[in-house]
Amino acid sequence: MDNKQIKNDAITRRSEDFAQWYTDICKKAELMDYSSVKGFIIYRPYGYAIWEEIQNYLNKRFKESGHQNVYMPTVIPESLFNKEKEHVSGFAPETLICTIGGQSELDDRLIVRPTSEVLFCEHYAKVISSYRDLPKLYNQWCSVVRWEKTTRPFLRGAEFLWQEGHTMHETEEEARTETLKMLEVYDDLGRDLLAVPFIKGRKTEKEKFAGAVETYTIEALMPDGKALQSGTTHYFGDGFAKAFGVQFQGRDGKLTSPHQTSWGVSTRLLGAIIMVHGDDNGLVLPPRVAPIQAVVIPVAANRPGVIPAARELYDELNKTGLRVKIDESDRSPGWKFSEYEMKGVPVRIEIGPRDIENGVVTIAKRNDSTKIQVKREELAKTVVELMETIHQEMYEKAYRYLLDHVTEVHTLEELDAALEKGGYAKMMWCEDEACEDFIKKTRAATARCMPFNQTKFDEVYPVCGKKATKVVLFAKAY
Amino acid sequence: MDNKQIKNDAITRRSEDFAQWYTDICKKAELMDYSSVKGFIIYRPYGYAIWEEIQNYLNKRFKESGHQNVYMPTVIPESLFNKEKEHVSGFAPETLICTIGGQSELDDRLIVRPTSEVLFCEHYAKVISSYRDLPKLYNQWCSVVRWEKTTRPFLRGAEFLWQEGHTMHETEEEARTETLKMLEVYDDLGRDLLAVPFIKGRKTEKEKFAGAVETYTIEALMPDGKALQSGTTHYFGDGFAKAFGVQFQGRDGKLTSPHQTSWGVSTRLLGAIIMVHGDDNGLVLPPRVAPIQAVVIPVAANRPGVIPAARELYDELNKTGLRVKIDESDRSPGWKFSEYEMKGVPVRIEIGPRDIENGVVTIAKRNDSTKIQVKREELAKTVVELMETIHQEMYEKAYRYLLDHVTEVHTLEELDAALEKGGYAKMMWCEDEACEDFIKKTRAATARCMPFNQTKFDEVYPVCGKKATKVVLFAKAY
Lengths: 478, 478
What we know:
homodimer, 11-stranded mixed sheet, 5-stranded mixed sheet
């Protein structure tokens, strides 16, 4: 009988080669696979199921706040795409273009959607005519294509899955409120579902979305010290609306343009989960997003009574509403332990002849590798409680790491030290783009955001000596 | 006060111009809109919400039977697509092809997926190696593109939403069982959710899917007498598996090819719902699939107490779990009555000063235009029960129509009479494709299926006088 734990030497150690460790988990935990289409990945059942949990959470939140799902065409005529100049120039270099349909050359070439602002605007122009038609709060779940040269699973791909919200409002104030409200929803998603803490803030002019007036962001911190932009919300003003002729009759009877927002998160969030929580044994999933929350593994399964006892545990856990699996396959317990560790299942339940004899069950927690033994009759209650405990433990660990990696800096030397340590360098900035560029060029670090907390701590910007007006977080980033 | 019902003269009468009536409902009930991409439609919130109810039902059924969702690339390399000859020739004429990516010409052109058999096969070849890896029961929710010349909303479009199941099995028997099991799931969907009865059967060789060994179908009947193929399941044998090198080591240690199925339903089902149940006042939705199941309309809303009373009803209904809406807008009750009739909301609840005085509420049923008055305190219970009653009434009405339009025919004259009446002509057939072609060419009717009930009623095929071996249903079809 082999029930000793086998170390997962199947993957590279995180400390040895962070990038390879990450890719190993993506593959070995069966989250994704490569396809024969360069840069396009296959979202395998286990990876897709995590995305479905994210979808469920967000769909509920979106619908509670009055948003409705729609579906727009997967391709955009080039002529339509070219209507908003700033937007076009941001996306044109990475478009995938269809030129042949039904065996004939197309007059107006079709771009596989990289984002759908223009389609939403075109539609809104048709369905909005009065203040009574506002707000329009639409969202779309789909995939988008961006022809990226270098790709990494979930983090940067030629195709990724996302949701894109596009809303139209009567007033600027309403639209601005929406932009910030959806950022809060994303922040909640991180805290409540993914156990990933975010820093919220506004993007600088240089870093904002092509065509937006203002862009807000949630930034996560990876254990290699790099920031990961995890979601953005944009306030557009009425620029797109004017370019696409969206107008409505206001309460005063006058024709005017509505104010617009868009916002999105993508399967990039899977990358955040993998990196923030994973370890040398593979994936570590926060319970609320885990496709399998608990796995029951019979030990010495051929001994009489073991399989029936394991099935009883499974049934009992299943009834609580937990997502449970039982593995009755003829693999060794050691193999199974490794397998579900690799897959990051939050809780493993072991039951063997001795446990049955003693009326106990062994529970192994994936997040901190601790084991506890509980009385048979306390299992269900314990596991349900553990889901909460583990979530909190994982969130707090990530949050402590984040707090520990925001360093206030006053000089360029301190900036270098902070970037060397990893994480965010919090610095006062003069709002001059040239000074932002200087950091990017000399340190390969970008302005991640101007955080909501703008308590000033310096009078001048360390780079140029000019008056410092904004608190900015600089970091290396994905 | 205007609470008289206004007739929806906004749409063409069904008896006048069936096709125009259908398109009018699609637009006026706000199910879809046209986009600037020819043949591609916009699935508007109300239409998309119906699709989401279908997704919820099927996802539950799929997962209960062990299926897992995945996501495959949205484009397929032409070289990969060309691997299975029969399949290619079926789809090549209507493909949309990308030739430019990231501003450079592509070496291997990319086809926007018309269906994903080849991608699934390529992936299966990588992840299947032992009988232990079987069965693989994958499903994908996505859109597919087929460059159709003439399009109609939901029925035939350049892009539609669907699910495509692709499974691999150890044995032929298992795969054949899966093919029939999923057909049953589709049949249940029609009966239990859409209130649309289907005829189940096998497609003839001529009508089966490109590359399949056998195709099964669910066929619905529209009120213009035409059949609508509403979903299909395919048994592939091991043809694709061999073409793509999918192999596994069997229990006997030998390498062998797995047996494959695929199956799908699409947003075409929305077309079936519209046509089967709709009337001259617009859409009529079966309650279980209706995005709004009941709407509360205050009558004489400016009178004291009306709005609070209406809100009370709304809250009460909401608590039962029904999908309820209250319309407090400043439109007239007559306008609102028309609006929610057009949108096919199963139940309308009217409450005005007199109702409040008398402690009653008026309920109007959309499906048969009857009104009932109930005591205030019986409202919630009544509406919940009505959901079941209405579903049954709608299903039975459609079922009676279907039964009434299956005509057993023994001669070509009877065939003509049956097609003239509309619906299915049930005929004995010799299984000669030439004889099937003859009906298609001379009557523009196709063999819809060989129904599961094969009780023979004739010895010879009326067309050629040869021995008749199969019962076939011929009909004109969408």
